[in-house]
Amino acid sequence: MVQSIIRANNNLEESNDANDWSQMGRDISELQRLVKQLESVIKEENGRNNAEVNTIQNENTITIEQNIIN
Questions:
Q1: What's the pTM value of the predicted model, to 2 decimals?
Q2: Mean pLDDT, all residues of the chain
């Protein structure tokens, strides 16, 4: 995905250098689409990471409670 964003940015730079306004609009749209896709992936990954942290915290709490009881 990162490579796609870099490629889209390079295309935008080329369109800008050529003063091709029509192509620049298409390149900007593609770049925006890719960034939104990246944001979605990051949110999903953060959700998974939060779930893992919660699981670890719960396991640690159970261990501490068991140690207190024993």
A1: 0.64
A2: 85
